[in-house]
Amino acid sequence: MSVLDQPAASVHAPAEDVLTASGLTGEMLTLRVLKGVPGGEAAEVAYQVPVVTGMVVLDAVHYVQHNLDTDLACRWNCKAAKCGSCSAEVNGHPVLLCKTRVDDLPAGPVTVRPLKSFPLIKDLVTDVSRNYEVNREIPPFTAAPDDGTPWRIPQQDIDRLYEFRKCIECFLCQDVCHILRSHDYADRFYGPRFFVRVASLEMHPKDVLDRREQTREQGGLGYCNITKCCTEVCPEHIHITDNAIIPLKERVADVHWDPVRFVGRKLFGRSGD
Amino acid sequence: MAVTPEPYDTIECDVLVVGAGGAGMRAAIAAAEGGCSVTVVTKSLLGKAHTVMAEGGIAAGMGNLDPEDSWEVHFADTMLGGQLINNWRMVELYAHEVIDRVLELERWGGIFDRTDDGLIMQRAFGAHSWRRLAHVGDRTGLELIRTCQDKMVHTEGVDVCMEYTLTTLLKSGDRVCGAFGYNRNTGRFVAFKAGAVVLASGGWGRMFRYTSNSWECAGDGATMAYQAGADLLDMEFMQFHPTGMIWPPGARGILVTEAVRGEGGLLFNAEGTRFMLDYDPVKKELSSRDVVARSIYKEVQAGRGTPHGGAYLDVRHLGADYVKRKLPSMYEQFHALASVDITSQPMEVGPTIHYTMGGIRVEPETAATTVPGLYAAGEAAGGLHGANRLGGNSLGDILVFGRRAGVAAAEFAKAAGASRAIDDAQIAAEQADLLRPLGGEGNGAAPSENPYKLHEDLQLAMQDDAGIGRSEESLKRALVTVLTLRERSAHIRVSGGRALNPGWHTCREITNMLVISEAIIRGAIERRESRGSQWRFDHLDQEVEFGKINFVTRRGDDGMRVESVPLEPLPDRLRPLLERSRFYDPAKLPKGYLTESAPAAGTTGKTN
Fold this sequence. Notes:
The structure holds two protein chains of two kinds.
Chain A (H helix, E strand, L loop, with lengths): L17 H5 L1 E12 L7 E10 L4 H12 L18 E4 L2 E4 L13 E4 L6 E3 L2 E2 L2 H9 L17 H11 L6 H5 L1 H4 L10 H11 L9 H6 L11 H5 L6 H18 L1 H10 L5
Parallel strand pairs in A: 1-5
Antiparallel strand pairs in A: 1-2, 3-4, 3-5, 6-7
Helix pairs in contact in A: 4-7, 7-10
Chain B lengths: L8 E10 L3 H12 L4 E5 L15 E2 L11 H11 L6 H20 L14 E2 L9 E2 L5 H14 L4 E5 L1 E9 L2 E9 L5 E11 L20 H8 L4 E2 L4 E8 L13 H4 L3 E3 L7 H4 L9 H13 L9 E4 L5 H7 L1 H11 L8 E10 L2 E2 L13 E3 L16 H24 L7 H12 L15 H15 L6 H18 L12 H25 L22 E8 L2 E8 L26 H5 L11
Parallel strand pairs in B: 1-2, 1-9, 2-6, 9-16
Antiparallel strand pairs in B: 3-5, 4-5, 7-8, 8-9, 10-15, 10-17, 11-14, 12-13, 13-14, 17-18
Helix pairs in contact in B: 1-4, 1-11, 2-3, 3-11, 5-15, 9-10, 13-14, 13-15, 14-15
């Protein structure tokens, strides 16, 4: 019996009752959003938003855009915590707006501000282009040219890499990292996201490049003093410090501070690995 | 109207790629490797495109787990799933080449789950005969986009313009020679002059209320192609993914990957009945998406829906560890957004608009559209998927035809030479049109309109009247609404300036969505049958005559025109391959050329 053989239940059933489906709770939320442009005045603007069951902060921002202020700028795409576009600071915490439930926040006004560590473009949108420049500096995946097909790789190697590959590039870790946020070392420090990237390449069983020296020199790996702020804000729960940064630091230490290799480097250049 | 345009920036390249999802990036890599300078333009940041929403995997007949599988079986499944109105040559190229594209992705650093032998793991998916989807957890789309992104940004000759919107294609005579738009962050106008243009701008789901699509999916690319004179194909076919979230309200429409069912998830109605056993006893939960979506819809209509109007999707029997390992982002999504632990509670799901089978009409080999210099690939293009796309065939599509489009566009650009003359009158007219909504309080004759309100009205009309089930009556109602909204859209006004003003950005997207909505509705009216995703309450049967044609939409002097074009019959060399599908049943072939010649098929084509 095919579905098409069955008579339709009704010729045209309307969608379910819109009011029941709307989930309105009758409560109102005060949403305080930083509005502004570089060089201009930036000020918090308060909006009143009707609370809907299970709503996330991005829903509230959309309500403002649709009903109160069509000019309010906010980045977003998937609204399912898969693309990492809607990063901002809610009540001072770096989060994805699409994954932050209003009913998980303390009662009272909710404050939304742009990421602090990046230059402001407008309202909740910042200039994150520096991250894309860093990514270009990291040499791409490089396999041995004579490594035949098909590749055979144990699942346990994939499991280890998978954690790093989960990164959605929301740059919350870059925002919270004090080397970037307080010390402004963007010119000499890749930041947590890109140590995760390097780790995913360095630990790939088919990648043949030695990335340790470059990560130390250009990446500034040594500046990280493992405060784990990046791990705390990661919406993908990547153990950035424990599984990416610390193993990288150990590998760099192996090659750089081993006394035999140190002498070898002095005598023969960059060999002796 | 001023003939002299406002000053604008000019960026010149050999090949302009519109869109930076998998298709756009794969096209850019191919064009650059073909010796061309390439500029990729994206509305968003790099790596955020809709490709990340594809979760289940890439279908490729590698046979790593099931040696019976091959490109031939993949061909057969895809044709049968598309109800035999696919472009068979596209399907043939696709099934052949997708295997190489998967292996290539791995060579670029993409990771896949492995078999016990260390080969690429493959998972079962709806209406695929064998375990076929190469995957990594439930984030294969993210893996694909990140891999292509890293390959592309390290490819010589590729520049990326992030957060630009393109609004019109520029033409020199009959030939496309670039595109015009603006920098979203500054509002400054920019013209891209190019030897060839690849539209890899994705699909269009935003005109429906419940959709897994992001704001980007407004049909910009297809609208630009239509306005430039290109043909659109089979626009009536919109895919409802059977399983989207339905609660809480803000999460409604968010995708619940088919991998949940691929890994063994089961569907139940509110009475605890596993209803797919009745609707499709052979493929069950892993029937094709059109069938599963309709089945859920029917259960709800029959009063057997869940409290929020859907079905239960249950993975509890798979065990918590397995669920967290194979479906980690689904676990996280339900935990965060719905406070549901899917290892101990069932998910509530219902159909959500997910994908556009129709699209810009292209040549199979080159992805060339009907306009010289213009190419289209991925979801923006039509033909590969016919009346219904099988899961896992979109990530493969973007790699295979993204590459083909890039190669062909590079060849065209090199042969086309340096003539990329831009018509300033065209640009001045476009600028005036774009700036109109910023022009103060309206013209006084009609109240000014809020673009978001127009969008909401369009979404309601399309969802209710041109949605999963349609009739001539409902479709005509939707058409009236769309035409009325078009009149209202002339009065859209927004506040603020041109710098990063989402209200202003939405204005042109409304215009585009109205064009595409009209095409969907007109195609759906003409197709007086039910086939694949098209479910007509007033024409429940499949008809032989509609199995022998496609519908083409093009711009005419007096508005939109829809006409049927004959479908080329399956050639003798490919016809026997259909029998290789596990789901081949000569008594239930999609109606068309094949059933017409079959002696037992009856005379009217309206049997069974």
